[in-house]
Amino acid sequence: MKLTAKTDIEVPAAFAFGTLVDHPSWEREALRAGAEVERPPGTPASGTGAAWRVRGQFRGKHRNVLLTIIELVENQRVVLSLDGPSIEGTARFEVMVLSPRRSRLRIDVEIKPKTLSARLFINTMRLAKGRVHAKFESRLGQMGGRIKDRYERSQVQA
Fold first, then answer.
1. Using an 8 Å Cβ cutoff, are 5 and 106 in contact?
2. pLDDT of 41-99, one tens digit each?
3. Which residue, 20, 152, 141, is CA-closest to 74?
4. What are the CA-CA distances from residue 34 to residues 8, 31, 55, 150 (Å)?
5. Which of the residues 19, 42, 45, 59 has an alpha carbon 20 to 30 A from that of 30?
6. d(Cα 35, Cα 137) in Å, to the nearest integer?
7. pTM check: above 0.90
8. CA–CA dist 134, 39 (Å, integer)
9. Which domains does the chain have, with CATH numbers?
């Protein structure tokens, strides 16, 4: 299953990209959401090859996924691989310059099932694709809002 969404934010592209690769901030956010985040030993702290093992509840079940940065193009895109016991896939985050103070954030997520139960879950998501896509776009809009808030706070402090 593939999901794509984009949002325009009133933030310079370099700041938006910097926020995407601010790993400690995303780790704290995942912890606040109730997930456990662990860095596998021997992986770099940032850049290509950086990885996180994330455990948490999703739809009433305990889930595990390994996130690994497989591509990083400075100020343009970050591509993560997702690997879990029942799913695998990729998440591609792209930042495009629209103007010096405006950028577009685009996310493409592709998930493939590894098990029969994951296949049933993904097929159920396909049946409700309109709602799933609307929620995905809403979450991206919230993420864009958080990036914009962080930018505005950094401008006040500067």
1. yes
2. 988 888 899 999 999 887 777 889 999 999 999 999 999 999 999 999 999 999 999 99
3. 20
4. 28, 5, 9, 22
5. 42
6. 22
7. no
8. 32
9. 2-157 (3.30.530.20)
Q: Residue with structure tokens 């956010």? A: 29
Half-sphere exposure of 19 (CA within 13 A, CB side): 23
Buried b (16+ CB within 10 A) or exposed e, 37-71: beeeeeeeeeeeebbbbbebeeeeeeeebbbbbee
Tracing tokens 């954030």 back to the chain, one arrives at: 105
Side chain identity at residue 34, one-letter code: G
* Stated length of the chain: 158
Yes or no: say if 78 and 95 are a contact pair by the CB < 8 Å rule: no
DSSP structure class, residue 130: H
The per-residue pLDDT for range 109-128, each reduced to its tens digit, is: 999 999 998 899 899 888 99
The token pair that represents 101 in the structure block: 């103070």
Task: Enter the DSSP assignment of 52.
Answer: E
